[in-house]
């Protein structure tokens, strides 16, 4: 083996000569109140080793008891991913010695996953839809968390000592494994990212997990291999473990494609191994070589009975499934009549729910989008907050738009009303009253203002009489100025024309 | 009736003690102290106990006496002391499973069955000796010295639960808890002249039993009479949500069945003799007592039939693949990381992996290592189907044999063990000979059916032998009816319990 690392190949160059195949394993921590096999709390952020029982510490004599809520969540995920749900499946023991695994075996599902043979459509940024096939989704328990103290790398080698926090040991996980994703070419990194993002959205829609990437609720292992052509057999793959943000998923795939292309170009073979992802430098480094992979001595977990979800229960769960995010987006886009680019902006801004609620509160979809993607987006950007965190509700935006639609405020006034609402002055109606912002459509007040304006610009009157309506705007402008913008512009135009004819 | 002298209290059955306590003739403190005194007097020779919890037992006894004095309604066995096999986790009391690897470990929680004992008010006298992690048939594999058979101190008390059985035979406790993975309750019962019951798998919670083989382990009563076993079985049995393999349904009436059996009438009961569990390899005296017991059952009205279980011949081989496989995984947690013994390597770097290896190397005895190696091998990739997979198929065939046999008979019977107690050291260097001692008891564990051993006489060598009764799963009550009937008929012939014929043990110091 050579000790030098072959240079990376430029990504576009790599893609022009190799066909990438990817596969993704996503672990999601379920948001159950208690652990997979015992009554310990799963709350995040507690003092180390305070959320443990004899079961999650693996004390002698302790036995697992299955969390029914976790099974329900796993079935929900399976159904959302269009999987078959097993009529009977068992847990197995995956035996290996490591201090973060309290029993020195992990209770997992091996050859009998609860869900299998599914698919999910994911949508890329430009709207292209890619179908990803799901091989399986299975249940397992999380391990504890190791902290290696001392040493430069934060890894176990070179550390002075290691600490283990078993609060995480036994947290229920569902692992979702794709079949090899082929035929996506240069979009492989983006597909990988969009897939993980789609799963995250699904977990949230199903309410099975908070799915917070930064807390490690969702973790991805990405498999990448290259082959010369799409017709060639699959190449040797690497598995980059624990890639924990959307952006990193994309970068890690991209990096592996460049790196493996370099290895192949150098006439070497890719080593089948797990690799570590380095967020800071954006590279992967070699981990455990798979050919010396341990023999996990799987066998059916004798302390648990098989899980046999009745078909009635599965159908009950199916009936309660919410609409999946991609389908919902498509439905709403059709209902709202947004262009693809408009919808994409809305999605990226996280404004779907806000607009949906605003429409429900009586605003037209176009108006709702205009508010949230316009004035409110600017305000949020200025304030450095998310749209949803602005101190205004979709219902208030709906009320505001109704004021506009009824002609009680014009656009300019409406922005002032919104400013009042954002400043905490109450509902749009209350702000209008308190600030006296309603448009003036009282003819008496307007007549006086129009006459004054006409008298000040006799030349304009002549032009209008001569059939040129263009200068009407100048008169309206003057009236608006005089009424501090509160005049009903439509009514002003009518009055101007009436007076000119009369005169 | 005047208060009995303490020395007599240890000779009473648990049922008799229960009556005396309820009648106010004795206090729990007196009964408990009597047994503690007996332990002090004879356990130096017997070594049934690894830990005696005198203070805790007396505290419980005082509390029970106070509650009784206050007129509180108590469990029938409240105040009757009990010994617990050291494989059962007891909060605040050392628990070693007979292994050095757990020396000094004091569990922070109670097994479910211990919770139930405490709730019923049974003072816990201490923890009894056993083969390390329940691996053995003689208690010689204990890391803390062997237990001696009270009938002959040079002989084994059976195993793995030799401590519990010997404690009963030596009158050190009126009740004890055992666990039975392949015969560890029944075979010690047979060779010590005591009663032992392995309930239906799932009948007694396994939560808090240090697992040997999860799919085979079952805790049960160790007593001197069938009725006492029924009383204890009803305390510890019943559903436990913390054990996923715990049966959901209520226990059948066990005490009622035992009392019914004491009438000695078995009219209409079909008793099936398992031909494969009798004959070659069984000591003549064992076979003779078995035939005599069958004759007694016939006279009591039972219909004795012969049944064949053709696959029982493979039971031992299947058992010695399934047990080590599960054990190799169950014992993985003993690694020096979180509890128990921790050994750091004397040279080289101290890594987690090397601490685990050093701890396990030093903490486990030879028999435990032998079985971990066997199990690890049987589960390895490429061998799984040939070993573990095949053994599970044999297990299914044995279950089918039982199902067919129970169509012809209400209970099945056999000698409990092929021989009487062998001499200490006799089979220690021959694991296969040791394993063969469980040939008649293992099939019940593989099938999950309940079994009982009742003392049925002395062999030609003057040592006790046992009569095994097996019933279909969930029909533990049948064991008690037939067992109590046989016990009654035998004691009529003997003029009292078999244990009356055991030699008196020399005592140390003075008993009160």
Automatic annotation (TrEMBL), chain A:
Asn/Gln amidotransferase domain sequence ranges: 353-500
EC number: 6.3.5.-
Swiss-Prot/TrEMBL keywords: ATP-binding, Ligase, Nucleotide-binding, Protein biosynthesis
Protein biosynthesis listed as a keyword: yes
Pfam families membership: GatB_N (PF02934), GatB_Yqey (PF02637)
Catalyzed reactions per annotation: L-aspartyl-tRNA(Asn) + L-glutamine + ATP + H2O = L-asparaginyl-tRNA(Asn) + L-glutamate + ADP + phosphate + 2 H(+); L-glutamyl-tRNA(Gln) + L-glutamine + ATP + H2O = L-glutaminyl-tRNA(Gln) + L-glutamate + ADP + phosphate + H(+)
Domain of life from the UniProt record: Bacteria
Record's keyword annotation contains Cell wall biogenesis/degradation: no
SUPFAM superfamilies: GatB/YqeY motif (SSF89095), Glutamine synthetase/guanido kinase (SSF55931)
EC top class, as a word: ligase
GO biological process, one term: translation
GO molecular function, one term: ATP binding
HAMAP family: GatB
Complex and partners: Heterotrimer of A, B and C subunits.
Function as written in the Swiss-Prot or TrEMBL entry: Allows the formation of correctly charged Asn-tRNA(Asn) or Gln-tRNA(Gln) through the transamidation of misacylated Asp-tRNA(Asn) or Glu-tRNA(Gln) in organisms which lack either or both of asparaginyl-tRNA or glutaminyl-tRNA synthetases. The reaction takes place in the presence of glutamine and ATP through an activated phospho-Asp-tRNA(Asn) or phospho-Glu-tRNA(Gln).
Family: Belongs to the GatB/GatE family. GatB subfamily.
Name of this protein: Aspartyl/glutamyl-tRNA(Asn/Gln) amidotransferase subunit B
Organism: Actinotalea soli
Gene: gatB
Automatic annotation (TrEMBL), chain B:
Keywords: ATP-binding, Ligase, Nucleotide-binding, Protein biosynthesis
Entry EC no(s): 6.3.5.7
One Pfam family, short name: Amidase
A biological-process GO annotation: translation
Active-site positions on this chain: 85, 160, 184
GO molecular function: ATP binding; glutaminyl-tRNA synthase (glutamine-hydrolyzing) activity
Listed GO CC annotations: glutamyl-tRNA(Gln) amidotransferase complex
UniProt KW Mitochondrion keyword: no
Catalysed reactions, as listed in the record: L-glutamyl-tRNA(Gln) + L-glutamine + ATP + H2O = L-glutaminyl-tRNA(Gln) + L-glutamate + ADP + phosphate + H(+)
Annotated InterPro entries: Amidase, Amidase_CS, Amidase_dom, AS_sf, GatA
Domain Amidase: 30-479
HAMAP family registered for this protein in UniProt: GatA
Family: Belongs to the amidase family. GatA subfamily.
Role according to the record: Allows the formation of correctly charged Gln-tRNA(Gln) through the transamidation of misacylated Glu-tRNA(Gln) in organisms which lack glutaminyl-tRNA synthetase. The reaction takes place in the presence of glutamine and ATP through an activated gamma-phospho-Glu-tRNA(Gln).
Subunit structure comment from the entry: Heterotrimer of A, B and C subunits.
The protein, known as: Glutamyl-tRNA(Gln) amidotransferase subunit A
Chain's gene name: gatA
């Amino acid at each position: 083996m050579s000790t030098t690392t072959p240079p990376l190949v430029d990504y576009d160059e790599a893609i022009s000569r190799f066909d990438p195949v990817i596969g993704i394993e996503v672990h999601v921590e379920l948001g159950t109140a208690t652990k997979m096999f015992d009554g310990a709390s799963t709350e995040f952020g507690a003092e180390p080793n305070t959320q443990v029982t004899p079961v999650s510490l693996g004390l002698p004599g302790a036995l697992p008891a299955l969390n029914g809520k976790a099974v329900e969540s796993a079935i929900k995920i399976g159904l959302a991913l269009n999987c078959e749900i097993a009529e009977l499946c068992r847990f197995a023991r995956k035996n290996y010695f490591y201090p973060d695994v309290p029993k020195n075996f992990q209770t997992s599902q091996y050859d009998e996953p609860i869900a299998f043979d599914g698919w999910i459509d994911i949508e890329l940024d430009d709207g292209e839809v890619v179908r990803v096939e799901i091989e399986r989704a299975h249940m397992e328990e999380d391990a504890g968390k190791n902290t290696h103290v001392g040493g430069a790398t934060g890894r176990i080698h070179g550390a002075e000592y290691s600490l283990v926090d078993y609060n995480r040991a036994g947290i229920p996980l569902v692992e979702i494994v794709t079949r090899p994703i082929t035929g996506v070419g240069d979009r492989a990194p983006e597909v990988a990212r969009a897939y993980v993002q789609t799963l995250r959205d699904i977990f949230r829609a199903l309410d099975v997990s908070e799915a917070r990437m930064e807390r490690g609720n969702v973790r991805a292992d990405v498999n990448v291999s290259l082959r010369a052509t799409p017709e060639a057999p699959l190449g040797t793959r690497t598995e980059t473990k624990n890639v924990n943000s959307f952006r990193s998923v994309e970068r890690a795939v991209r990096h592996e494609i460049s790196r493996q292309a370099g290895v192949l170009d150098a006439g070497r073979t890719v080593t089948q191994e797990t690799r570590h992802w380095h967020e800071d430098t954006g590279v992967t480094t070699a981990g455990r070589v798979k050919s010396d992979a341990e023999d996990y001595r799987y066998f059916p977990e004798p302390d648990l009975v098989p899980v046999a979800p009745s078909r009635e229960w599965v159908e009950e769960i199916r009936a309660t499934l919410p609409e999946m995010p991609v389908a919902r987006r498509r439905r709403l886009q059709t209902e709202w009549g947004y262009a693809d680019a408009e919808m994409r902006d809305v999605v990226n801004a996280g404004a779907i729910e806000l607009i949906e609620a605003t429409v429900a509160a009586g605003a037209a979809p176009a108006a709702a989008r205009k508010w949230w993607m316009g004035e409110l987006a600017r305000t949020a950007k200025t304030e450095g907050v998310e749209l949803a965190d602005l101190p205004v509700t979709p219902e208030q935006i709906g009320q505001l738009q109704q004021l506009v639609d009824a002609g009680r405020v014009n656009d300019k006034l409406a922005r002032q009303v919104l400013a009042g609402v954002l400043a905490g002055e109450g509902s749009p109606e209350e702000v209008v009253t308190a600030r006296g912002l309603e448009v003036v459509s009282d003819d008496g007040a307007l007549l006086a203002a129009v006459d004054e304006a006409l008298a000040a610009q006799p030349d304009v009157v002549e032009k209008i009489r001569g059939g040129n309506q263009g200068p009407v705007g100048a008169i309206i402008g003057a009236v608006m100025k005089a009424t501090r913008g509160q005049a009903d512009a439509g009514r002003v135009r009518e009055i101007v024309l009436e007076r000119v004819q009369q005169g | 009736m005047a208060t009995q002298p303490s020395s007599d209290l240890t000779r009473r059955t648990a049922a008799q003690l229960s009556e005396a306590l309820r009648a106010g003739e004795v206090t729990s403190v007196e009964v408990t102290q009597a047994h503690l005194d007996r332990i002090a007097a004879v356990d130096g020779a017997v070594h049934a106990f690894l830990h005696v919890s005198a203070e805790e037992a007396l505290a419980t006894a005082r509390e029970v006496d106070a509650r009784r004095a206050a007129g509180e309604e108590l469990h029938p066995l409240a105040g009757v002391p009990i010994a617990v096999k050291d494989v059962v986790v007891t909060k605040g009391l050392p628990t070693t499973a007979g292994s050095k690897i757990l020396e000094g470990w004091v569990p922070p929680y109670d097994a479910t069955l211990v919770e139930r004992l405490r709730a019923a008010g049974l003072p816990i006298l201490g923890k009894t000796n056993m083969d390390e992690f329940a691996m053995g048939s003689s208690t010689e594999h204990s890391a803390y010295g062997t237990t001696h058979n009270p009938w002959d101190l040079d002989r084994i008390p059976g195993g793995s639960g030799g401590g519990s059985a010997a404690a009963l035979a030596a009158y050190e406790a009126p009740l004890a808890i055992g666990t039975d993975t392949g015969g560890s309750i029944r075979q010690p019962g047979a060779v010590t002249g005591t009663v032992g019951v392995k309930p239906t798998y799932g009948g007694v919670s396994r939560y808090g039993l240090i697992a040997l083989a999860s799919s085979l382990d079952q805790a049960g009563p160790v007593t001197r009479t069938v009725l006492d076993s029924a009383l204890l079985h009803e305390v510890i049995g019943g559903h436990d949500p913390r054990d996923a393999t715990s049966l959901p349904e209520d226990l059948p009436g066990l005490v009622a069945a035992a009392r019914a059996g004491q009438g000695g009438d078995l009219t209409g009961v079909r008793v099936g003799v398992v031909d494969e569990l009798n004959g070659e390899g069984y000591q003549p005296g064992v076979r003779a007592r078995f035939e005599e017991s069958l004759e007694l059952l016939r006279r009591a009205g039972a219909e004795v039939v012969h049944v064949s279980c053709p696959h029982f011949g493979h039971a031992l081989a299947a058992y010695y693949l399934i047990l080590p496989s599960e054990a190799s995984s169950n014992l993985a947690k003993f690694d020096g990381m979180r509890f128990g013994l921790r050994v750091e390597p004397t040279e080289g770097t101290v890594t987690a992996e090397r601490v685990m290896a050093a701890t396990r190397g030093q903490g486990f005895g030879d028999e435990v290592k032998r079985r971990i190696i066997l199990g690890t091998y049987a589960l390895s990739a490429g061998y799984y189907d040939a070993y573990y997979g095949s053994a599970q198929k044999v297990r299914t065939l044995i279950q089918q044999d039982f199902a067919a046999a129970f169509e012809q008979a209400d209970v099945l019977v056999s000698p409990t063990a092929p021989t009487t107690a062998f001499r200490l050291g006799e089979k220690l260097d021959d694991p296969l000979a040791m394993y063969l001692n469980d040939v008649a008891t293992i099939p019940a564990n593989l099938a999950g059916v309940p079994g009982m051993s009742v003392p049925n006489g002395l062999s030609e060598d003057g040592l006790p032998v046992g009569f095994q009764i097996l019933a279909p799963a969930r029909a533990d009550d049948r064991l008690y009816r037939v067992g109590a009937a046989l016990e009654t008929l035998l004691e009529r012939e003997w003029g009292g319990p078999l244990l009356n014929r055991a030699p008196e043990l020399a005592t140390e110091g003075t008993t009160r």
